[in-house]
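quick one, two chains, predict together pls
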Amino acid sequence: MRQSHLFTKTKKESPSDEVSLNAELLIKAGFINKEMAGVYSYLPLGLRVIKKIENIIREEMNAIGGQEMKTSIFQNKETWEKSGRWSDDVVDNWFKTKLKNGGEVGLSFTNEEAHANILKQYINSYKDLPVYPYDFKDIFRNETRSKSGILRGREFYWKALYSFSKDEEEHNVFYEKAKLAYKNIFQRAGIGHLTYLTFASGGTFSKFSHEFQTLTGAGEDTIYIDENKGIAINQEVYNDEVMESLELKKEELVEKRGIEVGNIFSLGTKFSEPFDLKYKNQNGEEKLVIMGSYGIGLGRLMGTIVEVLSDDKGIIWPETVSPFKVHLLVLGNDEKILEEANNLYENLLLKDVEVLFDDRVDVSAGEKFADSDLIGIPYRIVISKRSLADGGYEIKKRIEDKGVIVKGEDLLDIIVSWGIKI
Amino acid sequence: MRQSHLFTKTKKESPSDEVSLNAELLIKAGFINKEMAGVYSYLPLGLRVIKKIENIIREEMNAIGGQEMKTSIFQNKETWEKSGRWSDDVVDNWFKTKLKNGGEVGLSFTNEEAHANILKQYINSYKDLPVYPYDFKDIFRNETRSKSGILRGREFYWKALYSFSKDEEEHNVFYEKAKLAYKNIFQRAGIGHLTYLTFASGGTFSKFSHEFQTLTGAGEDTIYIDENKGIAINQEVYNDEVMESLELKKEELVEKRGIEVGNIFSLGTKFSEPFDLKYKNQNGEEKLVIMGSYGIGLGRLMGTIVEVLSDDKGIIWPETVSPFKVHLLVLGNDEKILEEANNLYENLLLKDVEVLFDDRVDVSAGEKFADSDLIGIPYRIVISKRSLADGGYEIKKRIEDKGVIVKGEDLLDIIVSWGIKI
């Protein structure tokens, strides 16, 4: 894409009420727009990141048998009364709204009821199980505290998968698969090295739930990590009994702050009972379905990446979720150099390299460099009088301080050697 | 996909309060779930159709310079007060909800204000124009009448693009491009032959708005079509003066019912004035931006396709939006035949043919045929004892009554000759 066509521009300032690093950088770089506290729009660059994250998650969910659907945001009272969660006394962060012809509807704050209600129609026999429906949807929570940018919103974009299994054994097999899928997601999104499978409080149906916590001082949670084993305990279950059951030793654990980027937990029959989700087994006996829940906030994941992968100049996107792979900068207004830059841009497009081409005229080299660092695309290519005098193009990784000069004919080989998919 | 894994099943009945043909067929075939009047969830088959429609629209919008973003559903009062549309006296179908810490927010019922408010930050100079942001999003309208299935919902999935141009001339050039893009969309979605560019009432800023009306008795609008010229007039502007200005003759017009599947209109400075959307031209003078609006409801388009392309057995999807290209049916429980069907399924997947494989055992041939007709995938391939005795596989198009027997080795060639992208 030509940067001269991109409607966003970088900004010097973010809104004065914006105190989180993620939102500050993303607003300055033109990825998101703050609509109100806890509500953000994704601008073209931001949506490209969200779509990449979405595709990673979709691939991993499909690989373990997920079936994508799109459930409605409007939720009806009758469905939620079955589980007892319609009442504002039980759920204190509902958004509800009034129908003109009477009655109230809720806005999805989670998805168990919607899925259970749909699956109820299709589950009768053991042959109908297991199934793993999921969706990506906007979720709404009436938060009073919304100061963490896109880490915690009143409106946020979320993936939820629910598993419907015949029994505990089948449930557990899938649960372990989901754990691995989640590890893959955070690995592929570039924060695997900072993300710990964390044991947190369970509930009626299982001893633990499992969170994926990414280490950062900006995190809301306190966790105790075992760096060698790559696992952690959430403060809420940090006690001798739990440590013993996980074969962890207090002296090997380090206290850290983390952001919960994903969580999975067993639901047992919590929802299959009220929704009468039963199936007939091979002996013709009626059995309750066993459910599990697997969530990831896509905006939260994007915000976490920004929190942990940035420096004082801006964002440092992992290749896999960067809005573009290459940021091509042309400096100066020399016609011949502009033409050469244009040709390179067209060639990169022909090779399916995702490239943002800073073709803006009357913008100084300093501004272009600063914008490029702020936006944070992993590879920068510069064409200028100086680079051509030095023998070609300057290629620099965002994470490195110095670039190298390469000849035009070597450029594509170098890009390939850096592992950019072309 | 293996049909034995698909969690939906066909149904004999749709809800008794469902009176529209589109929702009835889509519910029976397992594409959608009715959550309440005017609110539907898209199940896996339905979402596949929506995604194909979305991709067609995205390609056409990008081709004319569109930049996709994802604006928030929550809308704040201050933004909408600028245009005067916050008031329930002005807009009578708002859904609003209350924030816990005071104040109200609205749910998007349209998108002009959201786009104008964002673009205000980025438009300063003539160099920043024109720009064409768009998004796909869930839209909410507090309708009291919701009996048209997915044609008219309280919640619906919508594409909206807004054009921001320097002057009328630049606006008009884009407006004509958008008309062609819309024609392409309906052509590609398989209803081009039934869809008429229709002149409808304009407003302060232009003589006409333009609707795309698809002919069907189920339509809400009355239009007068000129079949030769391929254009129509909406009843609301059907008068001598309009006919004359369009060079249409009353005696050549035929009265029909239509569904409005898309509409485009000029906004002039209606929103750029209240949002103070100005730019400096090359002489340094401040000028107001000229806007235009271009909407398509994706669910409505899907519902319209079902209304006009179905028979008494079920849906007849156009290839471009069908959830799968091929429906492969294996009949009987003969091990050898099942194995051959499995091999064919795997081979089709290797060739990237999108195939739904009805591998269900203990389901009769009659049921499989009925399900296949109801679901409406354009090509059906049957493997059975009989087809093998006749020399191979039976291939039948959904729109044709009789199939032909082809040899296994010819199968892929035939599929290719029918134009399925493999």
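Residues 168-188 of chain A form the longest helix (21 residues).
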